[in-house]
């Protein structure tokens, strides 16, 4: 089934969810499940089927991450907030927030305005630029999740789904409820969420690959109704007899919160290394594209990489944006730190099962 968009109505939860699919010159609606009420409090469990609020894809929760979110749009100095680390953004206080590692349904990947191979790691080749991807993984904020129950026999298509998750053996719970008639009982089956639970392979994979997957800091800032979210990840260090090269990947999401369409035209980065160097990078678009953020497609997400010959540094910059009325402006990219970890870099690539 070719997924184009997802229709979700929060006010009618729970309702049947239908996905619009198109085959050449006609469209049809196919029912894939029933929406559930999103959780205002608490966490979603491993095995919960989800729809992404912004990108519309189907997915399943693997495990949660607790991250510190540094949001420059929120009032600062609230009681109970955490102090940020010294350095970039030190005037911004971090608030703990839940994110989830999610497997993406491969049927939806061609239609997502986000890179579906955004989780990368260093290989063990001699070249310091040997990067490998784990396809179909994403990091999703709690508020971006719509939980649902699938009506399909195979609710999620991904090569790791059956390796990581299995049916919940306790999902169907039987209850005998008395009714008005003598010696009569009503048999009721309660279906507990989630429908799937973690296999031992998922737990082992999470523990082994924790350094490559860990999410710790998230940075946000809004300019002219364009919200930029940055999540940096330390990838490891490539060492040689002459030098050490430290690698990070960073995931960036742009979201148009306004009513006018906006297009990204240029990027301008400043990259500072603890070794004392300051690099400037300018160019057209991002990852070979100049994405438009419209009312129907308001968001775009991509990942990129940076390397330094020092164990830490920081980055900041701007995106040059052009609005549909011709107005251009620089959208700020929130400053974020590049910090290495004591564990060092990977000696071998992480396993996928």
Automatic annotation (TrEMBL):
PROSITE patterns: APAG. One of its GO terms (molecular function) is DNA binding. SUPFAM superfamilies: ApaG-like, YccV-like. One of its GO terms (biological process) is error-free translesion synthesis. InterPro entries: ApaG_domain (IPR007474), ApaG_sf (IPR036767), Hemimethylated_DNA-bd_dom (IPR011722), Hemimethylated_DNA-bd_sf (IPR036623). Pfam families: DUF525, YccV-like. Residues 220-345 form the ApaG domain. It comes from the Eukaryota. PANTHER family: F-BOX ONLY PROTEIN 3 (PTHR14289), POLYMERASE DELTA-INTERACTING PROTEIN 2 (PTHR14289:SF16). This is ApaG domain-containing protein. The gene is 109543000.
């Amino acid at each position: 089934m070719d997924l184009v968009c997802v229709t979700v109505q929060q006010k009618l939860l729970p309702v049947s969810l239908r996905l619009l699919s198109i085959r050449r010159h006609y469209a049809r609606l196919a029912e894939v499940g029933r929406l559930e009420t999103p959780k205002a409090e608490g966490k979603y469990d491993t095995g919960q089927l989800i729809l992404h609020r912004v990108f519309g894809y189907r997915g399943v929760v693997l495990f949660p991450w607790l991250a510190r979110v540094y949001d420059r749009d929120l009032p600062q100095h609230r009681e109970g907030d955490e102090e940020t680390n010294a350095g970039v953004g030190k005037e911004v206080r971090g608030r703990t927030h839940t994110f989830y590692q999610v497997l993406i349904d491969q049927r939806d990947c061609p239609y997502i305005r986000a890179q579906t191979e955004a989780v990368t790691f260093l290989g063990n080749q001699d070249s310091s630029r040997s990067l490998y991807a784990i396809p179909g993984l994403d990091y999703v904020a709690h508020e971006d999740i719509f939980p649902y129950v699938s009506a399909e026999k195979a609710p999620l298509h991904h090569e790791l789904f059956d390796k990581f998750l299995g049916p919940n053996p306790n999902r169907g719970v039987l209850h005998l409820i008395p009714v008005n008639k003598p010696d009569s009982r009503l048999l009721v089956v309660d279906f507990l969420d989630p429908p799937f639970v973690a296999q031992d392979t998922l737990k082992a994979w999470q523990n082994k690959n924790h350094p490559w997957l860990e999410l710790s800091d998230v940075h946000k800032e809004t300019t002219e109704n364009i919200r930029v979210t940055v999540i940096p990840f330390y990838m490891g260090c490539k060492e040689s007899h002459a030098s050490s090269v430290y690698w990070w990947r960073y995931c960036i999401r742009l979201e148009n919160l306004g009513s006018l369409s906006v297009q990204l035209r240029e990027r301008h980065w400043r990259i500072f290394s603890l070794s004392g160097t300051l690099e400037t990078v300018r160019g057209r678009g991002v990852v070979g594209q100049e994405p438009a953020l419209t009312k129907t497609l308001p968001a775009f997400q991509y990942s990129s990489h940076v390397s330094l010959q020092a164990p830490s540094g920081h980055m900041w910059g701007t995106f040059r944006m052009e609005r549909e009325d011709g107005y251009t402006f620089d959208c700020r990219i929130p400053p974020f730190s590049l910090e290495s970890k004591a564990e060092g870099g990977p000696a071998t690539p992480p396993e996928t099962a």
